[in-house]
Amino acid sequence: xxxxxxxxxxxxxxxxxxxxxxxxxxxxxxxxxxxxxxxxxxxxxxxxxxxxxxxxxxxxxxxxxxxxxxxxxxxxxxxxxxxxxxxxxxxxxxxxxxxxxxxxxxxxxxxxxxxxxxxxxxxxxxxxxxxxxxxxxxxxxxxxxxxxxxxxxxxxxxxxxxxxxxxxxxxxxxxxxxxxxxxxxxxxxxxxxxxxxxxxxxxxxxxxxxxxxxxxxxxxxxxxxxxxxxxxxxxxxxxxxxxxxxxxxxxxxxxxxxxxxxxxxxxxxxxxxxxxxxxxxxxxxxxxxxxxxxxxxxxxxxxxxxxxxxxxxxxxxxxxxxxxxxxxxxxxxxxxxxxxxxxxxxxxxxxxxxxxxxxxxxxxxxxxxxxxxxxxxxxxxxxxxxxxxxxxxxxxxxxxxxxxxxxxxxxxxxxxxxxxxxxxxxxxxxxxxxxxxxxxxxxxxxxxxxxxxxxxxxxxxxxxxxxxxxxxxxxxxxxxxxxxxxxxxxxxxxxxxxxxxx
Length: 502
Hints:
- This protein is of the alpha/beta class.
- The relative contact order is 0.05.
- Helix 2 (40-47) links the parallel strand 2 (32-34) and strand 3 (53-54).
- The strands form two sheets. A five-stranded parallel sheet has the order 3-2-4-1-5, sandwiched between helices. Strands 6-7-10-8-9 form a five-stranded mixed sheet, with helices on one face.
- The chain contains 20 helices and ten strands.
C-alpha cells in the first residue's frame, strides 16, 4: 500500500528557525529521514529524542552530486510504497533543493502522493544579514553551474552551493569576467546559526582566500548601476544603439538605412581582417566591436519596424549552430573536418527542403553571394563546380591553361579592343585562381600578403631616399630598383615582420 512522502523544510539555521507546523510534523513522523546530518537542527532532534535516518552514506558512496540526488529520490520512492515517509531538507524545500524537484517529477508517474511543507529559506537570512531588499531586483545562482552570461550587474546576486574554497575560486573567476577585481562582495557562513554565523566583506580577488566555506555558505554580490559594469553586457549595447536611433539620439544615426550602411559593413569586416594579418589582439578587439556595431544597427532598424530584434538574430544563430553540428549536439559522428562539413551540408540541404526548396533542382553554383570580392568568388565557384566533377585532373593541366590564357592576353594586347583585353585578362586571373586551389592556397590571402610585402618594400625605398635628402620624384628608376633589391635582401634575413628602421 502506498503511503506517500511529506517533505519538510528545516530552515536555514538552528531550531529557532523551525516553524511550529514543521516541528509538530517532525515529532509525529513515523519514519523520518534527513537529507544530511550536517545541519544545526540535527543536534536538537537528537537532544529531543526524535529518531531519524540520513542519506549521508549515499553522499560518501557517490562521486557526483547528480548521482547522489537520483539515488536519494529512488530510495524515498521505494520506501514510500509501503509506509509514510517524512523527508526533511535544509532550508526551504523549493529553494535550491534538487532532490525535491526530482520527487515532484517522479511521484506522479509512480502514483505516490507528495506533500511539501515550507520552512525558512537561507534567502530569508541573506536578506536579513546582508541587509538588502529583493524588491530592488535579485537573482539566485548555483555556484556549481555559474557562467558569465548569467550575470546581471543591476541585480543583487546571491550565489549558493559554495561548498569549499575550490568552488569559491571558480565563482571568483567567473565573476571577474564582469566585475573588477576589487569589487566588494560578501561571503556568509552559517547565517542565522547562533555562535557560528560570520559575514565577511572582501574585495572580489580575495573571495577564495578566506576560510569557513561549507554546506551553509553563500556569496552576495551587491547590485550596481556603474557604467563600467553595464558596458560589459549585450543589453547595454542594445540600449545604447536604440538611444542613438531614437528621436532624442544622434541625427546621423537616425538617418542611416540598410543601404547607406552597406559599405560600412564591408569596410569594418576588412578592418578586422587587417588586425588578423597584423596579429594585434588589442586592435582586433576594437575592430570586432566596430563590426558588431554594424550588426546591432541593422538589427535595430528591423526592430523599429517590428520585423525582428537582435535577440532573434542570436536565437536563430544558436539554433542553426546546434542544428548543423549533429556530431557535437546530436547523435551523428564526425572523425575529421571533412565529415563535419558533410554533416553541415546535409543539414543545410534539409533546411532548404523544409522551406520548399529542392536542393537537387538548384544550380550546382547556387549559394555563392553575388557581391563577394572577385578572387574569393572565383574560388568558391570553382570549388562548387569541382564538387560535381567539373575540374582539371592534375595541376599540370592548370599550368597549361594559364600559359594558354597568357598567350590570349598578349594577342589581345596587340590586336584586341579594350573589351577583349578585359575579357582575356579575367580568364587569366580565373585560371590563376584555379592554380591556387590546386596548391591549397587562398588566392585572396596570397594577394593580400603580396600587397603587404609590396607596401613594406616601397616604404623602405621612401625611408632610404628621405635619409639621403631626396624625394621619390628626385630619384630615378635605377636608384629605386637598387633600394628595392636591398629591401628584398632585408626581407629574407629579417622576415619582414616589422617595418624597416629608418
